[in-house]
Amino acid sequence: MRLDMASKLLNFGSKLFKSSKNFFSGAYGKRGSSSINARKWTGARQKLLTFGALTGATGLLMYAMDASVDASSDSVHPAKQQWPHKGFLSAIDKESVRRGYQVYKEVCSSCHSLQYIAYRNLVGVCMTEAEAKAEAEGITVRDGPDEEGNYYDRPGKLSDYFPMPYPNEEAGRAANNGAYPPDLSYIVSARKGGEDYVFALLTGYCDPPAGFALRDGLYFNPYFSGGAIAMGQLISNESVSYADEDVAPSASQIAKDVTTFLCWTSEPEYDIRKILVIKVFVISAFLIGITYYIKRLKWSALKSRKIFFLPEIQEKAKKAAEDNCPK
């Protein structure tokens, strides 16, 4: 269905491009023979209309090509989920972010890094300052050199970033059958589909269909490009124990929590930007209202006044002036 729509849009865009080209070429040809058309179709207007038609045709072609690429993808498209933080006035669930950090720490951190997130970013979001300090002190950081030029190990601080699971990329590939686990700091923003893709990937493992051959060390996931992925299914029911007994640690709940956490790591300023937009809307509405009121107040007299020319009144005033003028 998407392929048919893409082909129709491509045909429509090409026809629009050809028709606009023929139309404007005809307008240029008739310009010298007809004086009316010569006055009507000025050069600036023709260029503007040509630019508008070409821009519209280009937009249709780009949309058609994007739709055709989606239709020809080698993976299943993730379903749309109702994320609670997607509303205009909705914020990211901080409790879900806290649980998602626990999932990352216990399940994901052994292979995937968060090299662009520091422990100080957790303060005020899912932890207090004391809790974040305790988390940072749980790692060992290689620091230095000191006054004698030696490197030393020290406990982590709030300013330290999350540790890397492997010392270098080669070590990561060697530990994962040649596949290097990507950094998860911006994974939600970097993948098309965002949260929906990450959630579908974590919960979409299944048996391969008949005739689909998998190499050793690979697993089948229809949401991954090509269907074969080196990461096994790590999330299952009760794979993590939550401190909150009211939240059941099902596979979907665990995947939802870690996806929410990764959404926050991709945009730590997500809630701040929403608050800023709301402030801009409120201030703009107030300023627009004041501006409209001042405009009506200042210009109402000028816009509502009417000037009439009455010859009779002018003649009467002229005669009255002549009569009152001393001889």
From TrEMBL:
Keywords in alphabetical order: Electron transport, Heme, Iron, Membrane, Metal-binding, Mitochondrion, Mitochondrion inner membrane, Respiratory chain, Transmembrane, Transmembrane helix, Transport
Domain Cytochrome c: 95-258
Entry's family note: Belongs to the cytochrome c family.
Transmembrane segments: 275-294
Subcellular location: Mitochondrion inner membrane
PANTHER family: CYTOCHROME C1, CYTOCHROME C1, HEME PROTEIN, MITOCHONDRIAL
Free-text function comment from the UniProt entry: Electron carrier protein. The oxidized form of the cytochrome c heme group can accept an electron from the heme group of the cytochrome c1 subunit of cytochrome reductase. Cytochrome c then transfers this electron to the cytochrome oxidase complex, the final protein carrier in the mitochondrial electron-transport chain.
InterPro entries: Cyt_c-like_dom, Cyt_c-like_dom_sf, Cyt_c1, Cyt_c1_TM_anchor_C
Species of origin: Drosophila arizonae (Fruit fly)
Protein's recorded name: Cytochrome c1-2, heme protein, mitochondrial
Primary residence: mitochondrion
